[in-house]
Amino acid sequence: MSVNISKLARASVQAIVPYASARRSMSGGAIWLNANENALASEYQLSGQFNRYPSCQPAALIEGYARYAGVRPEQVLVSRGADEGIELLIRSFCEPGKDRIAICPPTYGMYAISAESNQVASVIVPLQPDASLDVEALTQVAAKLVFICSPNNPTGDLISRQQIVSVLEHFASSALVVVDEAYIEFAMQASVVDLLAQYPNLVILRTLSKAFALAGLRCGFTLAAPEVINALKQMIAPYPIAEPVAQIAVQALLEQGIARMQQSVAIINQLRTEFSAFASTLPGVSRVWPSQANFVLLQVPDAAACVSALQQQGILIRNQSAQLGLSEVVRVSIGSPDEMQALQQAMQDYFSNTG
Ligand code: PMP
Questions:
Q1: Which of 33, 38, 83 to mutate for ligand 1's pocket (most ligand atoms within 8 Å of CB)?
Q2: What percentage of the chain has pLDDT greater than the value 90?
Q3: Rg of the chain's alpha carbons, rounded to an integer?
Q4: Among 23, 220, 239, 270, which residue carries the largest CB count within 10 Å?
Q5: What is the number of alpha carbons within 13 Å of residue 224 lying toward its C-beta?
Q6: Are the CB atoms for 210 and 334 separated by under 8 Å?
Q7: How confident is the model at residue 5, as a pLDDT?
Q8: Residues with a CB atom less than 6 Å from ligand 1
Q9: CATH 3.90.1150.10 describes domain 21-36+257-354
Q10: How many angstroms is it from 33 CA to the middle of ligand 1?
Q11: Per residue in 238-288, pLDDT tens?
């Protein structure tokens, strides 16, 4: 008798389409420009033994990030990437089957997937055609958490401070407003971290995966009022941050680590400007979204064909056409200068043959 063991999983789990992460959905290739990582990596040292369990919230790391972000240590939670922060917010604040989150697509896919895997529904309030929030529509929605991504993945644009303030004020006593600043170092002046002092319903997500070039580390931060941080601490695993992770993250947040990060941001922002200008000259590229992050979204005639032509040259980029409100778009992460040169050559060849 053959038994399909996978059918033993919860019905709601069987229905989930998992997030198509870069490492899950594409392999091979020498040039990886499909996951918004930072190609400009640094080396780190590990010291000590690992026979003891780590602290749940290593004090040196919490203090290091608080100093870097300009907040108090009680306002910081460290987790396995910002993705775990998203999950913890949903698990701590949303009743399964009852509460809802609001999302503003096209945006980062994990908000809806994390919600769905916790039996929490998502209310969809699409961004306006100019990529701003539809504040009017958001204020008609009942939600426990409102997710705003700024700079937004995959479009790359910032959400204005004024719009974020309007949303915070509207939901002052009914919902947390989560501003995902995973890419904020590429547009640091736009951070709304200072608004934490004024709005206890503001939550900010940050990560070391992007500007700090530590995606492999799995280290993210939630910044919020101590009451919110304490609720998340009640849900978090006993030992979420492995000792080597804590040691490396502490080094990244020392003065010289921050200076290295800022140098790489300057290089990447320059490469992004050059790449965006190049892409807008290509026959067949009908739109280049202005980006404040380390990736650029492009409208092309046939996204799947473009991704596969570049893959044949060993270059991985991401098809974002399945995103609500987008069709035939590809997202290109900004890599090293050499990688960008190879990409531009491959795109030039592809578009001059198809355009
Ligand atoms: N938010 C956004 C907008 C992202 O693009 C990503 C990474 N793809 C994350 C959060 C998650 O980052 P982390 O690696 O810290 O889990």
A1: 83
A2: 87
A3: 21
A4: 220
A5: 24
A6: no
A7: 87
A8: 36, 81-83, 108, 149, 153, 180, 182, 207, 209, 215, 220
A9: yes
A10: 15
A11: 999 999 999 999 999 999 999 999 999 999 999 999 999 999 999 999 999
Q: What is the DSSP letter of 158?
A: P
Pairing mode, strands 329-333 and 76-79: unpaired
pLDDT, residue 4, reads 86
The domain spans of the chain are 21-36+257-354, 59-253
CA distance 271 to 341: 10
| Distance from residue 83's CA to the centre of ligand 1 (Å) | 6
SS3 at position 120? coil
| Amino acid code (one letter) for 6 | S
CA separation for the pair 333, 317 (Å, rounded): 7
ipTM above 0.90, yes or no: yes
Distance of CA 272 to CAs 106, 183, 192, 231, Å? 21, 14, 23, 39
| CATH for the stretch 59-253 | 3.40.640.10
Tokens of 260: 């290295």
Q: What is the pLDDT of residues 19-76, one digit of tens each?
A: 888 777 777 788 999 999 999 999 999 988 899 999 999 999 999 999 999 999 999 9
A 10 A CB-CB count for 25 gives: 14
